[in-house]
Amino acid sequence: MYLEIDFSSDEAIYQQLCNQIILGIATSQFSDGEVLPSVRQLADDIGINMHTVNKAYTVLKQEGFVRMDRRKGAVISVDSDKKHAIETIRKSMIPLIAEAICRNLTREDVGEIVNGLYDEYGEYEKKAQKGELPSQYRDEKDNPAHA
Amino acid sequence: MYLEIDFSSDEAIYQQLCNQIILGIATSQFSDGEVLPSVRQLADDIGINMHTVNKAYTVLKQEGFVRMDRRKGAVISVDSDKKHAIETIRKSMIPLIAEAICRNLTREDVGEIVNGLYDEYGEYEKKAQKGELPSQYRDEKDNPAHA
Amino acid sequence: MYLEIDFSSDEAIYQQLCNQIILGIATSQFSDGEVLPSVRQLADDIGINMHTVNKAYTVLKQEGFVRMDRRKGAVISVDSDKKHAIETIRKSMIPLIAEAICRNLTREDVGEIVNGLYDEYGEYEKKAQKGELPSQYRDEKDNPAHA
Amino acid sequence: MYLEIDFSSDEAIYQQLCNQIILGIATSQFSDGEVLPSVRQLADDIGINMHTVNKAYTVLKQEGFVRMDRRKGAVISVDSDKKHAIETIRKSMIPLIAEAICRNLTREDVGEIVNGLYDEYGEYEKKAQKGELPSQYRDEKDNPAHA
DNA sequence: GTGGTCTAGACCACA
DNA sequence: GTGGTCTAGACCACG
């Protein structure tokens, strides 16, 4: 998978890394059980410090997207406790909705944004709704780019 | 308006301040044209340093929620360029939707979160839809043709 | 004359006032010998503090656009020492030209800007060239005079 | 590059710093992609406070002369949107041209000032016209598709 | 009285 | 080591 990092962003690099990987999972470029590149390799690929990659993996683990396997390294393993997820998303969404309201966006406007993003990224969703999950590894097309 | 700051949060104080004020605008606790407390005043009120408040005001200005009037100080003045707003919100929402998809939340789940938040905070929205807005500048001498 | 003040500008009000008045002179809305409004009246008209108007008048006097008459108040009286003027303009122009160069604007681009502004504001210039002003300089291509 | 600060000037130090650096870019003493000294370093070098340098860098970033690279610090990166640049320059030039007109300077006089300054500072211009620019980002990993 | 600027010194997250 | 944040206290220009 190709990871885009903007070194001039105000977002921390490890944070961008997390987000990109989460996006990769959402778009089925990474699938459950897949192994992420080693810290050192990914760091070299992107041209960043090893510590930074390490931090990203640690955060992903804490947030339940990855588990650390002693032999394989970081392995995708999405923890989907719906109630907890909703609460998390809700909390992060408060400032965004507040801004939307201030800018005179209606809930329909926001709904369109959400739908647009689901259309764009929601590969995982399609699978889920076709009941293909959680029969976990149903990988006919999941030849993820490079590791 | 009562502003709550969590000093043990990992979110920067000035950032919390920004969010609280934006929330205040969304819920009509602050309305367009209203003057915010002076940096010193607000700093004293919530027990933080003047400069921290100043930074919050500066960010709010830059993001188009406030303008600095040389006579009155910081004045609520929401810049509602819909197109720009949508783009901003969309960008900040990408990681959230990605996470939602990973956690198997459907777009309907997310829609409910959005609606819940609109119900909770959307005072401003109600006004807007009743046509009471926009009256961006109330002051007779405050809206010069060019900046 | 109508004076436009932007209270949200980063430029000080007295400074804007000065610039507007100078612009008024350039466009012949104020002419030599004309009396400016009293400090109090202008302050009331614009809705600003008397001190601010006072400061503007003081600066205009120092810069040689106005003289203070004990009975009439501030009187337009433009001091046009060409050599001194050139040196002043040159100094203020340095950062602008530096910026222009950085942005890849050619000297022709800047020349066009200058000409555009002369076309827009140069009432005074027309008089000068018609010989209505102190015959002085009626030379279309004179001494370089710059550093 | 040697930066000269006049501590007795009425111009803010951070503003002088900005102007000096812009001048440095114009004269090719700084070139695109070059890394500026760290805030602490530069502050020590010229004997001012870290925060003052920081403010200068922040302003330069906001005005599109510099970007903040999370790995390298402040990097010269001139944003040359010609249309925007012209509008900016034009606005700052209005008071200068107004003054010039008042002082009976012809457009030719001003043109000479402009040319003089271009002759003195326009190193960057020469390169640009030889086609050596634009190569805005030299770094292979520094130019992500989206910010 | 306001915000803007500058200084000084501190801690922390990031890389 | 970097910049980002926060604090504290000071002076000044502006209004």
Key features of this structure:
homotetramer; 147 residues; mainly alpha; Arc Repressor Mutant, subunit A; two-stranded antiparallel sheet; DNA-binding
Would you write up a description of this structure?
The structure is a homotetramer of 147-residue chains. By secondary structure, the first copy, chain A, is mainly alpha-helical. Chain A folds into two domains: 1-79, Winged helix-like DNA-binding domain superfamily/Winged helix DNA-binding domain (Arc Repressor Mutant, subunit A); 80-135, no CATH class. Chain A is 53% helix and 5% strand. The first copy, chain A, contains six helices and two strands; from the N terminus they run αααββααα. Chain A has helices at 13-26, 39-46, 50-62, 82-102, 107-121, 123-129, and strands at 66-69, 73-76. A two-stranded antiparallel sheet of chain A has the order 1-2. In chain A, a hairpin with a 3-residue loop joins β1 (66-69) and β2. In chain A, α1 (13-26) packs across α3 (50-62) and α2 (39-46) crosses α3 (50-62). The radius of gyration of chain A is 17 Å and the shape is globular. Chain B binds chain C through residues 67-72, 75, 77, 141-142, 144-147, and chain C through 4-9, 12-13, 46-49. Chain B binds a DNA duplex (15 and 15 nucleotides) through α3.
Percent helix of chain A? 40-55%
Strand content of chain A: 5-15%
* Main sheet specs of chain A: 2 strands, antiparallel
CATH topology of the largest domain in chain A: Arc Repressor Mutant, subunit A
Report the largest inter-chain contact. Answer: C-D, 57 and 51 residues
Order of helices and strands of chain A: HHHEEHHH
Name given to the CATH homologous superfamily of the largest domain in chain A: Winged helix-like DNA-binding domain superfamily/Winged helix DNA-binding domain
Termini separation of chain A (Å)? 7 Å
- The top-level CATH class of the largest domain in chain A is Mainly Alpha
Low-pLDDT segments of chain A: 135-147
Task: Report Rg of chain A.
Answer: 17 Å
Task: Give the oligomeric state.
Answer: homotetramer
Number of structurally distinct domains of chain A: 2
CATH architecture of the largest domain in chain A: Orthogonal Bundle
Q: How many β-strand runs of chain A?
A: 2
Helix/strand/pairing class of chain A, anyone?
mainly alpha
Looking at the structure, what is the overall shape of chain A?
A: globular
Q: Major sheet of chain A: order of its strands? A: 1-2
